[in-house]
Design a protein that fits this description.
Elements: E1 5-11, E2 20-26, H1 33-43, E3 47-51, E4 61-66, E5 71-72, H2 76-91, E6 97-102, E7 105-114, E8 117-125, E9 129-134, H3 136-143, E10 156-160, E11 164-169, H4 173-177, H5 183-190, E12 197-202, E13 212-218, E14 223-226, H6 230-242, E15 250-257, E16 265-274, E17 277-284, E18 286-293
Parallel strand pairs: 2-3, 4-6, 11-12, 13-15
Antiparallel strand pairs: 1-2, 1-18, 3-4, 4-5, 6-7, 7-8, 8-17, 9-10, 10-11, 12-13, 13-14, 15-16, 16-17
Helix pairs in contact: 3-5
Length: about 300
Amino acid sequence: MPNPRFYIVDVFAEEKFTGNQLAVFRDVEGLSDTDMQRIAKEMNYSETTFILSEQTRNGGYDVRIFTPEEELPFAGHPTLGTTFVIRQEILGEPVGQIILNLKVGQIPVTINYSSGQVDMLWMKQMPPTAGLTLNAGRMAPVLNIDESDVDTRFPIQEISTGVPSLIVPLKTLDALKKISVATDKYYELIKDTDAKLILVFCPETRKPENNLSVRVFADYYGVPEDPATGAANGCLAGYLVKHRYFQNDRIDVRVEQGYEIGRPSLLFLRAEDKEGRIDVFVGGNAIMIAEGVLKT
């Protein structure tokens, strides 16, 4: 087994030690699937990524993404964080775009700069697809909230831009804060759904400059609550446009997440309905925290 280098990055962070932590590994030739899964379990972040080669293939870098429990075809903060590491540590010079070859397909990431430093990363996600809808009576007991907390003007619905998410609209921030997932009811629910991840949102925010508050629960993947979830927020962006949540066929919003678990995060969502096809973009910042070598 090799001794791969790794980096720890905070993604969707406004300052160090906020946002969602990510471990990114390079020099991974010789690692097996089992090795990668065990390393991801050891790191125990929401996700850990592995850059398979520092040479491009079809214009993109081959990358694999693992939660502590299993491999994912796509995830948001790993996409942005891995792109940041490739830009900073492998390329070392300004480029406008980097493409990642993920199991879901090629994901382009646009890089914005300020004073020569990476300022913002934007990924274009796959067009959202809609799936199963549920009623408030089935969802409320899973979240330990009242049915009346659910904003029934909009559906509880599965949306996917690569990884299905169950989107749940609530009325108030108080309702969002009081969520306590009933694990047994959660696992009973997801037996009948493609989505194993639940994103709950409301239009009330802690900071006046933000537009939505979000919480994300994904115990199935070994992540009881996630601090910042790019893939699920991409699904949310598609949902907001599809159901005209802001009475518009396009959105440009700021989302806060992670406050309940002490990792405040900020995500930027843009989406637009173009004759039935919704384009989705999710943006955020990344901050380098640490680097090291895995001993084997």
